[in-house]
From TrEMBL:
This is Relaxase. It comes from Heminiphilus faecis.
Length: 398
């Protein structure tokens, strides 16, 4: 699921668009009214706009007085949705949107919580004319009913995070997961092309990719030397630096990758198979895993950790109770990767004592059962708690 948000000043145009009043659409969509909040029934776009402008007179310095939001879930997830289901999806999104506080790395508050739930809003469902793909459009007042301003700093991040949280709770694939799955497929295509080339030729490499349906965009320097490339397929685009492993599909490394594939292809396949039998793979998306970004020694890593493990960390470090919950989860994720016997951000396994399994064997089992995995997660949470400590939010009580 994808969500976008932006504060705007052209409110009447946005209202005309989402309600279907605008006559400027080249490809008209099917449009259905879903929900109004703090608005009289049957009010038209001009009435909504005048109501918001009247409220805004108390805040003359506020230039953008509306927030425009678009929510696009995958069509297979909402195929049988009723208007009430769409309304519930919107309300769940607002809840996740409003609960966020934006802070910097030192914990200083950058943007307080919003109150979209307590603000005037109108929500409409659009179905694309050709494909029937659904998406929600909403316009929300920047002023809530108490006269407080809904802060719009980093508003696009709030929307993205709210969409990610809803997708995880409902068991949907997130936009990040879908991109990563597609990235792996593209990487496989690139490696397949390289393995089939009998002689090295960058032009042949690009030509073979184009025959697979990719649009190749090449970046050259002032001397005409190729320094990078981007692969496009449909609406998806992938930089060479994010493909493969260890950036081995970048233009500067392609010939070396081709050389390694030729003599060692069969050996590498067997080695990869043996390695996958030893430990779970946290570098690729698997069902019931969550995409997690964490840091260690000033480096950032993206890994896919079992959802049950992340639920343990979410419960142990409640964002409603703790100011430093994000740091604690970051530390716990790092220790979990180590405890499973695999430093997932290295190319080789690193085994550590006390990581699990039998007391006389540091290697993880081929298949850890769920109970052992959760128990290990709790130990990692305890390690993070003892190392960092807990900073509780003031005035919070369960």
């Amino acid at each position: 699921m994808i969500a976008k948000a932006k504060s705007i000043s052209h409110g009447i145009n946005a209202l005309n668009y989402i309600t279907g009043v605008s006559a400027n659409k080249k490809h008209p969509e099917k449009i259905y009214h879903i929900y109004d909040n703090f608005l009289p029934p049957g009010i038209d776009p001009l009435g909504i706009w005048n109501s918001v402008r009247l409220d805004s007179l108390s805040r003359p310095r506020m230039k953008n007085n509306l927030i425009r939001i678009e929510i696009s879930p995958a069509s297979e997830h909402t195929r049988n949705y009723t208007p009430d289901d769409w309304k519930q999806l919107w309300q769940d999104f607002v809840t996740e949107f409003d609960r966020q506080e934006m802070k910097d790395k030192t914990g200083r508050l950058l943007s307080p919580r919003t109150n979209l739930a307590g603000s005037k809003s109108t929500v409409w469902l659009h179905l694309e004319s050709d494909s029937g793909t659904p998406h929600l459009h909403a316009v929300v007042s920047r002023l809530d009913e108490n006269g407080n301003i809904n802060d719009d700093r980093n508003i696009h991040l709030r929307a993205q995070r709210a969409a990610e949280r809803i997708a995880r709770k409902r068991g949907w694939q997130t936009a990040a997961n879908i991109h990563d799955i597609n990235r792996q497929s593209v990487s496989r295509d690139c490696l397949d092309v390289l393995s089939q080339m009998r002689e090295w030729s960058l032009e042949d490499y690009f030509a073979r990719l184009e025959s697979k349906g990719y649009d190749v965009k090449v970046r050259t320097d002032e001397k005409g030397i190729i320094r990078g490339y981007i692969l496009k397929k449909g609406n998806a685009r992938f930089k060479a630096s994010e493909l493969g492993k260890g950036r081995n599909l970048m233009a500067s490394k392609l010939e070396g990758t081709w050389n390694k594939l030729r003599p060692n292809q069969e050996w590498q396949t067997k080695a990869d198979s043996r390695e996958s039998d030893i430990r779970p793979d946290y570098t690729s998306y698997r069902p019931d895993t969550r995409r997690v970004e964490f840091e260690h020694e000033s480096n950032s890593y993206t890994r896919f950790i079992p959802e049950k493990v992340m639920q343990v960390f979410d419960d142990e470090f409640d964002s409603r109770e703790m100011d430093n919950w994000a740091d604690l989860i970051n530390e716990a994720c790092y220790h979990f990767a180590v405890a499973m016997g695999y430093m997932a951000f290295l190319n080789t396994p690193t085994y550590v004592s006390g990581g699990g399994g039998a007391s006389n064997n540091d290697l993880p089992k081929k298949r850890d059962d769920l109970e052992e995995e959760i128990a290990r997660a709790r130990r990692c949470a305890a390690t993070a708690r003892s190392k960092i400590g807990i900073i509780r939010k003031r005035g919070f009580r369960r």
